[in-house]
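User: Sequence in, structure out. Go.
Assistant: Echoing your sequence, followed by the structure tokens.
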Amino acid sequence: MRVKHVTKLVEGDILAKPIKDQFGRILLQKDVYLTERLIKLLKQYYFGNVYVVDIYAEGIVSEEPISDELKYKAINQIRSTFNAFEHYIHGQQTKIILDESIMHIEETVNEIASVIKTSDMMLSIMSDIFVFDQYLYTHSLNVTLYSLVLAKKLNYNEKDMTELGIGALLHDIGKLKIPKEILNKPGALTKFEYEVVKEHTTYGYQLLKDVQNIPDSIVSCAYEHHERLNGTGYPRGLKDQDIHEYAKILMIADVFDAVTTDRSYRDAYLPHVGFEILYAGSGTEFNKSYIEAFRKSISLYPNGTYVRLSDGRAGIVAKQNRFFTDRPVVRVTEEHGHRLALNQVYEIDLSKHLNITISHKSSEYE
């Protein structure tokens, strides 16, 4: 199977995996032939990437430690918890209901953490389940997954992984108090609007600090995930030694997911560009060793991704190299601008050819 962005689908493409909505319900089954009408609907509802059948990608399978079922279960739990907090904000919910929601959040986090701790597979970018109107929920899930794989790399114990995971799921809870017309604005924010959005960290702190059984470490995740080591962040301009360790992880996961995810007002940046943004702030805004550990924890180019190599060749990512996340095995399908015959296709292991890099995802994907 091969990954394709919905904007690059053409009539005749055949689905290699089902397409589901934000509740995990199947909208289109595997093996469905995509017509112009179906493609238009997928674009209309802002789906990101889908898996299609490709004879050049035969035998290539997606590898992901977190099952689709668990992802959707987590998103629905996030939705439920955010709804409970929203009702609480408007005086329609009691703290008892919030306490119950936090208990369910902890169960979900423990389930995710257990899979991450015991799996040898690398986590890949999450954009294949993304739809714009669910951005707050999917972003919260993605940040949680990225934070937990980084915590595993940093040898966090079970208790700390659980607390970090809960903090990650709730890190943007304060956005519930930001006006929807600003939060969902399909374009650049004005200076005033940006200042309004920045208040979500303080709102998150205010919402969580009085909820029973939520430790200060989790409250800090909501309050401090936009702080920066050199004091240039917000809301308090804290410096390295005053920022909670969980928040130092969250700030990396939060930035990476925000820039590598499609938004209604811009396309996603490529994964390596996301890391360039992080490395630009390495040692000043972000912890350098954490960025390095994070880079080693996720597959930058998931199986099935069509990529172009620095020497001009192009092909499909076929396998991952666990210790070289930016150097997978690529099945070469194009040379000198010409498509190879099926019997001429071959694979190249980039971990053994260090003079060749992935320059960008190919024209079929961009």
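User: And one key feature?
Assistant: The chain has a mean pLDDT of 89.
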